[in-house]
Amino acid sequence: MHGLLSYPEFVQQLMEGFAPPEIAQLMNFSTLQNHSGNYITPLFEEKFEDVVWSVEITWEGLTQEIYLYILLEFQSTVDRTMPIRLMHYVACFYDHLLKNGTTTPSKGLPPILPIVLYNGSERWTARQDIYDMVYPEPPAFLQVYQPHLRYYLVDEGRYTDEELGLRPTPLSGVFSIEKASADRKGLQQAVDRIVAIIQASPDKERIDNIITRWLKRYLQRLGAKANLDQLIADIEELPVEEIEKLRADIKH
C-alpha cells in the first residue's frame, strides 16, 4: 500500500473516496506534491510507514497549502496508543519543516490533516483524539490546557463489498483484495473486479503496470497462507503473460 500511495492518483482516490467530502472537494489535486520520508523519532526509535503530501485548498477565496500526513497501520491488532504516537509523529514532522527551512516560527506552521489507514482484522477501537485518553475528564478550568489532536481514520475492514462497489476506483479494488485475502474465491472475485476497473480507466496502461506490481508483491506476502500457483491460475481475467510473470517471480 505504501508504494501505491506514492502515486498522486491513488492519493486523490483515497481523499475523494474515503475522506470527508467537505474536505476533499476543496482540494486542487493537480497541486499534489510528495514530501514523504521515513523518520526515526526519539520516542519510538524506529522507522514507521508514513506518506506525506501537500495539496492546495481554496477556502472562502483564500488558497493555501496543507499537508496530508498518512500513517499506514497494517498491524493485525489495534494499537490503542495511536493518539500518543500520532501526536509525536506530527510534532516531529513540524520540527522537520522548521529545520529544513520550509517554514519558520514567525511564518507559522501549515495545517496538517492526519490520516490513519488501517487494514487489520479487528475493527478499530482506539481513541481518535488524544484528549479522549485523558481520564477522568478534567474540570473546565483545566480542559483548555489539555492536548488535542484528532486523526481521520480509514478502516478498510469496515467497508462492505457493496460500499466499495460504489467507489469504482483502483484503490477501492485494492481494499477489496486486502479484505478477501483469507478467502481464495473472494480474492479471485476481488481481482476480477479490479481488472474491470482498470480496463475502464482512461489511463489503463499506467494503472495496469502499477497494480500488477503491487498485486505481485501482495500475493508473494500471502505465500504462507495460500497455494499461489492455484490462486494465480484462478485469476482468469489477468493476461496470460502477467500470470506467467507472477509464477516466475514467486518461484525465484
UniProtKB/TrEMBL annotation:
<dbReference type="Pfam" id="PF04754">
    <property type="entry name" value="Transposase_31"/>
</dbReference>
<protein>
    <recommendedName>
        <fullName>Transposase (putative) YhgA-like domain-containing protein</fullName>
    </recommendedName>
</protein>
<dbReference type="GO" id="GO:0006310">
    <property type="term" value="P:DNA recombination"/>
</dbReference>
<feature type="domain" description="Transposase (putative) YhgA-like">
    <location>
        <begin position="4"/>
        <end position="204"/>
    </location>
</feature>
<dbReference type="GO" id="GO:1990238">
    <property type="term" value="F:double-stranded DNA endonuclease activity"/>
</dbReference>
<dbReference type="InterPro" id="IPR006842">
    <property type="entry name" value="Transposase_31"/>
</dbReference>
<dbReference type="InterPro" id="IPR051699">
    <property type="entry name" value="Rpn/YhgA-like_nuclease"/>
</dbReference>
